[in-house]
DNA sequence: GCAAATACCTACCGAGTGGTAGGCGACAAC
DNA sequence: GTTGTCGCCTACCACTCGGTAGGTATTTGC
């Protein structure tokens, strides 16, 4: 299938001005989104300002608001964009026959060279635990999906005797996700120190999987 | 040993006005700190405003700044306060002969009825991964200490054959901390749904410990 | 009861916030 | 090449931010 362009992935059904029709506009929208990722990653949604994002993207802040009518709309676009990019790599791995959890670990591995992305999800996922947060539903659904999928995978394995004794699929599923999340914080903190001491997120996740699978 | 009073724990060496000398002031300071915990917990450090905190604490915002000269100073006081309260319960458990990891799980258990505290640490620990954040050093040190202590405990056990085969102490130590952190996010999100579906953080941590210890 | 320190207020500051109004030039379909 | 759309700008809005100035009232040690 033809790969979706960034613009197609980013622009929902045209709201207000029919956005995404001119090439120039599409390019600028992508640029804004990539800049917004950096900003939200650094100081979270609350902490980031449209003026800072727009300046870094080389546009005035009303110019930004022309493309994304509100700050929340920009956040939504950022999350959709990330979901598309990440989901695609994961699905490709899976289609190639890669094991579900191995594909999960590969996401972690890829993220280890994309600090802003890690910062983004670390910052937003905790911020968004407040029900009023514009990304609350996004993360709520995201965790539901992740836990459900992982539980299914583990349940399948359990039936084939592929689980270590005493391991409960639903509990282990949640723990994998939690482990990946929690490691992000320590990984980000370890960026201060020497590279040799940097936390290896993927290795930790693999070690956990080795404990529960057999 | 005599328990430190809240005020003694909270007020550092007198800076500017010699704070903590009047009973009224000490009481108000505690009130402000407790309100600040709620505010920082809900919207993070960046998201919280001194005006909101001060209003909820029944004081004007310059009144608040009389007690804590800057917003960062207030944050510092909040973190010190929480460290004192939490650390005390942990040390009491340990002094009573409770196992290190069991004492750790009990912290998690206690936290399961103190949502604001969980929100606070979840929000701040990710926010503070940025080196410029006023709480950066606090969390950096905190994780160092936690990982070091846990690694020591696991290494001791390893020597006595108390570890499951293939478990590496340093890696497992980091994983425990990461798991506790990551579970907080899912626990907070599960607050939306029915009580029966609420994530049991302590049970998950216990299950992990059961995997690595023997 | 007096003096000194503390507690806390109103008023204000400059800077920054998300968002709006209205214009103007570049673009693309016809 | 005209016409309607789109991209993006300057100027402005009301509001909020952390912090300061300078005052009054309360509390405390003596």
State the gist of this model:
With 214 residues, chain A is mostly helical.
Q: How would you sum up this structure, described in words?
A:
- The structure is a homodimer of 214-residue chains.
- Chain A has helices at residues 6-10, 23-47, 50-56, 61-67, 71-95, 100-111, 115-127, 136-159, 169-189, 201-212.
- The radius of gyration of chain A is 19 Å and the shape is elongated.
- Chain A is built from ten helices and no strands.
- Chain A folds into two domains: 1-69, Arc Repressor Mutant, subunit A, CATH 1.10.10.60; 72-214, Orthogonal Bundle (Tetracycline Repressor, domain 2), CATH 1.10.357.10.
- With 214 residues, chain A is mainly α.
- The first copy, chain A, binds a DNA duplex (30 and 30 nucleotides) through α2 and α4.
What low-confidence regions of chain A span 5 or more consecutive residues with pLDDT below 50?
1-17
Write down the CATH class of the largest domain in chain A: Mainly Alpha
- Number of domains in the coordinates of chain A? 2
Strand coverage percent of chain A: under 5%
Summarize the main sheet of chain A: none
Order of helices and strands of chain A: HHHHHHHHHH
- The radius of gyration computed from the alpha-carbon positions of chain A, rounded to a whole number of angstroms, is 19 Å
**Mean pLDDT across residues of chain A:** 89
Number of strands of chain A: 0
Binned, the helix content of chain A reads: over 70%
Query: Multimeric state of these chains?
Result: homodimer
What class, by secondary structure content of chain A?
Answer: mainly alpha
Give the end-to-end Cα distance of chain A, rounded to a whole number of Å: 36 Å
CATH superfamily placement of the largest domain in chain A: Tetracycline Repressor, domain 2
